Automatic annotation (TrEMBL):
Protein name: Triosephosphate isomerase
Binding site for substrate: N10, W11, K12, G174, S214, G235, G236
Keyword Cytoplasm (UniProt): yes
Domain of life of the organism encoding this protein: Bacteria
Organism this protein belongs to: Alicyclobacillus fastidiosus
Length: 255
């Protein structure tokens, strides 16, 4: 089944409102790079979501990088799913390796977040991936499978069909090292097979799988050309509007 390609930026803890506005203006001037039939999104700091929603080209959706899985309550410092949904947020990153390692986000918490995001009609982007020592000891498949199965636990097949899964090998994030497109494809295919076996075949053919980890304008096409990779989750190279537009063009050229 045809899956819509997705180019997603993850700005992490970068950009003030003024910088986000400048990005949106610059991308607006290069919006001819954005094609029909491809989805674009930027997962940005909460404080910049408003200016991005107002100023980004209409094809580029906004996403958040975190959420707390309760309706409301005494959770100082947290943001509820309904607050993000009301705001026009379409995607929410969950389980990014930086949150798992720096903030102790467990698979159980990741699963709570995934379910809360879906209940509020947004799309969770479930991030999974092995670290270097796990890769070197041959545990990639076991680690990734465990994160996928636990992250999606309790979801219906139709919910799983809407989810985006981002395979981001931890050793490739911000390091300038990428998995080869072929290696990333092997893992993406394993994820799709796992969803088919454990959840549902039709959900497996619908779920979108992104690659992330040092994706740049000059390597993005090689990932998008893989049959089981439906897009990219990009950190550093998504911070510059020209680079974002160059990646959009490269995806257009690879389709
Ligand atoms: O963590 C990432 C996206 O979520 C990847 O970051 P880089 O593209 O900077 O390696």
């Amino acid at each position: 089944m045809a899956r819509t390609p997705l180019l997603m930026g993850n700005w992490k803890m970068y950009k003030t409102v003024a910088e986000a506005r400048a990005f949106a203006e610059a991308l607006g001037q290069q919006s001819s790079a954005l094609r029909d039939g491809v989805e674009y999104a930027i997962c940005a700091p909460f404080t910049t979501l408003h200016v991005l929603r107002v100023m980004l080209p209409a094809q580029v959706k906004i996403g958040a990088q975190n959420v707390y899985p309760e309706k409301e309550g005494a959770y100082t410092g947290e943001i509820a799913p309904v607050m993000l949904a009301e705001f026009g947020t379409q995607y929410v990153l969950v389980g990014h390796s930086e949150r798992r390692t720096l903030f102790g986000e467990s698979d159980q918490m990741v699963n709570h977040k995934v379910r809360a995001i879906i209940e509020n009609n947004m799309v969770p982007v479930l991030c999974v991936g092995e670290n270097l020592s796990q890769k070197e000891s041959g545990q990639t498949q076991a680690i990734v499978s465990g994160q996928v199965v636990q992250g999606l636990a309790g979801l219906s097949a139709s919910d799983v069909a809407q989810v985006v899964i981002a395979y981001e090998p931890v050793w490739a994030i911000g390091s300038g090292k990428t998995a080869t497109a072929q290696d990333a494809e092997v893992v993406a295919k394993e994820i799709r097979n796992l969803v088919a076996e454990q959840i549902d075949a039709s959900a497996a053919s619908s779920v979108r799988i992104l690659y992330g980890g040092s994706v740049k304008p000059n390597n993005i096409a090689s990932f998008l050309q893989q049959p089981n990779i439906d897009g990219a989750l990009v950190g550093g190279a998504s911070l510059d509007a020209s680079s974002f537009a160059d990646m959009a063009s490269a995806i257009g050229g690879a389709l």
